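Worked example

This section walks through a single chain of length 330. The input is the sequence exactly as stored; nothing has been trimmed or padded.
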Amino acid sequence: MKYPLLAAALLIAGCAAVLPKAKQHFDLEAHRGGRGLAPENTLAAFSKAIDLGVNTLELDIGLTADGVVVISHDTTLNPDHTRDANGAWLAPQSGATVRSLTLAQIQGYDVGRLNPASNYGKQFALQIPQDGERIPTLAALFDHVRARGAAAATVRFNIETKIDPAKPDETAAPEPMVRALLAEIDKAQMGGRVTVQSFDWRTLALVGQLAPQLPRAYLSSARTLKDSRWTAGLDSTNFTSTPQLVKAASGKSAGPVIWSPAYNDLTPAAIKEAQGLGFKVLPWTVNQRADMLRLMDWGVDGIITDYPDVLRDLMRERGLSLPPPGKAAS
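Given that input, the structure is written out below as tokens.
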């Protein structure tokens, strides 16, 4: 052949043309550890999510009476998945607030299975119970992930401050909650792996002041956007869109900014606008395959889901890069 170098170059180019496109990053987040698969916000759920292979463990935190950061979505003990020391389900609406109980008192309750008679239990009927699971501390989760070693070395944490500005007596105030959270993150040296998220944007403003390098995720829903108590005093009607509202709330952020809306509130135009402002878009809580596919087509940067196994399968089908599983998938 007269032009061996040219021929080689053409051969390489031809091979490259048929190779798949470079795999993009997509954030697979296990909502409350993946409550469709295991009891929510428990070490059992987080461990199962790590075994499966997720990018991020999504979770919620509150403060106990003795100032300990614990992992709980509910500001009060939830009768749908809480049993007392005798194994009896709590009576409806009888749960004490997390804020009123010490850590020792809280960990006397079992949160390892759903009450099958409850609507919640019926919604997640395939959840695998794990009797004996307790409401864990955030420190215990950090220790657990560290103990998993290489299997969890890249796992991130998306931590929601569970606080309701309309019920100020039900939880710790924003500043003590944020300071306690940041102290635990610093103690565990997990700052490089944490995002702080909240519907109560006052807490995100505090994070921006006290730990500006941390990513912040602005959660939104149709309900919270109508009440300026949730949006740190900003009136959403003064803004042309929710992304513009998030921009105003986040200010000149040193760390990354994320918008996490309810998925039914999203449109392709809103996603494009938010990303044009430099935000990532991670909707919650997406559990149906059709919804996941539609949002992926629209270009979201990740999805928060109760079923990380379903989303992982869709990511595989689309050739997206998958987070490594903690053990071989069955």
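What to look for: The longest helix spans residues 4-18.
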